[in-house]
Design a protein that fits this description.
Strand content: 35-45%
Number of strands: 30
CATH class of the largest domain: Mainly Beta
Structural class: mainly beta
Number of domains: 2
CATH topology of the largest domain: Methylamine Dehydrogenase, Chain H
Shape: globular
CATH architecture of the largest domain: 7 Propeller
Largest sheet: 4 strands, antiparallel
């Protein structure tokens, strides 16, 4: 019955003067139903369905389709029928969806993917805000002169104390997930993208407020961007479960690691730049060899999903925060061997800090490494001495989720941001609130 309905719908589509579009009609069906199992980092049957080019490469069984011949194309036969083979362990495609794919193949399986995927998101002018957008990321420049604040499609640059607007870096990506200044402070790396479309890394010249390079890859946003110590590369975590490293000079991907099995939210480099630490929702903290992309070891026993990471500025130590509110400190060093199931040994462990009341969204060290701060979903922020774990300050909840925080370059101030779109600046050693401000320009609605 379903197959007959497919042919009826396909006939109706064929009568339509406009051919079926891969980008507009077929791609959304594949993304909604198929790419969960057929994408980079998880290519079941060696088949990637995230793009036209990847689809046409085929998989372990050979060609995915034969242009002009739907009934002999595996892409169609796997989804057709009363009990289709695909999607595996999920609801089958509707008759209308199957008919769209059949008709596209019958019409020649042509590619109409735009050459510039970001064009649909490009703004003609800086965004106009009637209310403050949520602040997803913050970064303070090494010299303390600039505070970078994430907005919608942009990064707002303010003076180090937050008082003055210095500029607006407007890019294509609607979402800005992570910010990091280069070691010399001359460039700002921005990670984000368009959800379910692409991930993007933007490299900006801070002084000239000029986009130096935009790097698009993957099929979803990038997270947790970090610079190599020599400033030549950046690393990102990805929603496709990969860890990627890009060269700043030409934007090429120079490393890829596929050892995670869930979204990767954070990265941090070892002091010598030879190793990379990544943290994922799969509960793992991975230590990766940058030259090869090979896994060296897990830094900790998997306990709970991990959301953020920060490296000590002067030592090979990383702090990471979890979905359960726990903050832990570990050495960036391989243990004697991989953990066996049930083995509680954690040779790289340094200490645990007292648990926050909800998921930890951000951790940060002060520039001298003496203090460690964490904040999260319940709006509470805590500051500890990193050396012994003693709590310095406990800042009460601000009444909304907080996503990010950053120390000033001299370590005297701590800035937080979250869902209410406000920057809150605290005295780092006491947790005393110094000022609150909205970092973006607001347009007053006409009465």
């Amino acid at each position: 019955m379903k197959t007959a309905l497919v042919f009826i719908i396909a006939a109706s589509l064929s009568a339509n003067a406009e051919p079926v579009s891969f980008f507009r009609d077929v791609r959304p069906i594949l993304r909604a139903n198929c790419v969960g199992c057929h994408k980079p980092g998880k290519t079941k049957g060696d088949l990637d369905l995230t793009s036209y080019a990847a689809l046409m490469k085929g998989g372990k069984s050979g060609d995915t389709l034969k242009a002009g011949h739907a009934e002999s194309s595996e892409l169609f036969t796997q989804i057709d029928g009363t009990e289709p083979e695909m999607p595996k362990d999920a609801e089958p495609l509707t008759a209308a969806e199957v008919a769209v794919i059949r008709q596209w193949i019958a019409e020649g399986a042509k590619d109409d993917t735009p050459a510039d995927l970001g064009a649909a998101h490009r703004l003609a002018a800086p965004p106009v805000y009637r209310s403050a957008p949520a602040i997803s990321a913050l970064a303070s420049s090494p010299d303390g002169a600039v505070l970078a604040v994430a907005g919608w499609h942009e990064v707002v640059l303010r003076s180090g104390d937050g008082e003055q607007m210095l500029g607006r870096l407007v890019g294509e990506s609607p979402r800005v997930e992570s910010l990091a200044f280069s070691p010399d402070g001359k460039q700002l790396a921005v990670a984000g993208g368009a959800p379910s479309e692409y991930g993007e890394v933007q490299i900006w010249d801070v002084a000239d407020k000029r986009l130096v390079r935009a790097i698009k890859a993957s099929v979803d946003c990038f997270f947790g961007i970090s610079w190599s110590p020599d400033g030549s590369k950046v690393a990102v975590g990805c929603a496709d479960k990969l860890v990627r490293v890009f060269a700043i000079a030409d934007g090429k991907e120079v490393m890829r690691c596929d050892n995670h099995i869930d979204w990767v939210f954070a990265t941090a480099w070892s002091r010598d730049g030879a190793r990379l630490v990544s943290a994922s929702r799969d509960k793992a903290v991975k230590l990766i060899e940058v030259a090869t992309g090979h896994l060296i070891d897990d830094l900790a026993k998997p306990r709970d999903p991990l959301l953020c990471i920060a490296r000590h500025p002067a030592e090979d130590l990383v702090a990471f925060g979890s979905e359960t509110g726990q903050v832990r400190l570990h050495r960036v060093a391989p243990r004697g061997g991989r953990l066996a199931e049930g083995d509680d040994k954690e040779e790289s462990s340094v200490r645990e800090f007292d648990r926050l009341p909800g998921p930890v969204h951000a951790v940060a060290f002060s520039p001298d490494g003496a203090l460690l701060a964490a904040t999260g979903a319940k709006g509470e922020t805590r500051i500890w001495q990193s050396g012994d774990g003693k709590k310095v300050a406990q800042i009460p909840s601000v009444g909304c989720a907080l996503f990010t925080l950053a120390f000033s370059s001299d370590g005297t101030r701590l800035v937080t941001g979250g869902t209410d779109g406000k920057l809150r600046i605290y005295e780092a050693k006491t947790g005393t609130l110094m000022k609150t401000l909205v970092p973006v320009p607001l347009e007053v609605a006409a009465k």
